[in-house]
Amino acid sequence: EATIEVSGLRKRFGQTRALDGMTFGVQAGQVTGFVGPNGAGKSTTMRVVLGLDAADEGTALVGGRPYTSLTSPLRHVGALLDAGALQPSRTARNHLLWLAHSQGFAAARVDEVIDLVGLGTVARRKAGGFSLGMRQRLGIAAALLGDPPVLMLDEPFNGLDPEGIVWIRGLLRSLAAEGRAVLVSSHLMSELQDTAGHLVVVGRGKVVADTSVARLIERA
Ligand code: ADP
Ligand code: ADP
């Protein structure tokens, strides 16, 4: 049984068919790459899983239950959806302290996640001056606050320099090796092929290939 189970999701925005039967599962213990061109429906799928968008049809379950029925959802699912969204006038650390406080997480966890994402040297600077790469790290830190078994990261490589991309890949692998289910989207296969053990390739709102990287290479 998959930790995230997406089944037959359909969703229209006006005339746009964003999801057209999206179906796949995400297992714990590995990185699942969610790959496809811009507009393929990756973000919408994640938003539906998180209950931020309603699907017209289909189901999305986390640990066998709808996200909105989890008692403490932020302890089960950490998400990075839009790395741009943060209070620019707060320091990175104060931003995380505020999130931890509002979500009922221990303040001590803040310094742990700052170390985990490598923001130690800039944690006391205002986040408004952060590069997109530093914002991505801050967003990942926020997603890790509740130490969730499930992570969903939408385009975490955006805006990162090559060093940052290598760093995020390592972090994703180690988070999965600890037994988490990790779903990571990208419009570039090259960003995920060495990191994801499982690839879900999507286009026009549905899955066009669902395979292990090993099997994909065998076929080539
Ligand atoms: P991806 O994340 O793969 O780039 P999205 O899920 O963001 O794809 O978008 C899928 C399709 O749905 C696109 O055509 C996009 O323009 C459309 N879409 C997404 N969100 C909205 C929205 N809030 N209003 C209208 N159209 C939307
Ligand atoms: P309750 O209503 O009993 O508080 P919870 O939603 O808190 O239910 O979850 C009950 C158990 O299921 C917890 O031990 C939690 O760790 C586990 N669990 C819930 N969601 C997930 C998930 N997405 N992935 C893994 N384990 C989960």
Automatic annotation (TrEMBL):
The chain holds residues 2 to 221 of 305 of the full protein. Residues 4-220 form the ABC transporter domain. This is ATP-binding cassette domain-containing protein. Belongs to the ABC transporter superfamily. Keywords: ATP-binding, Nucleotide-binding, Transport. Transmembrane segments: none annotated. The lineage of its organism: Bacteria, Bacillati, Actinomycetota, Actinomycetes, Streptosporangiales. It comes from Nonomuraea purpurea. GO terms for molecular function: ATP binding.
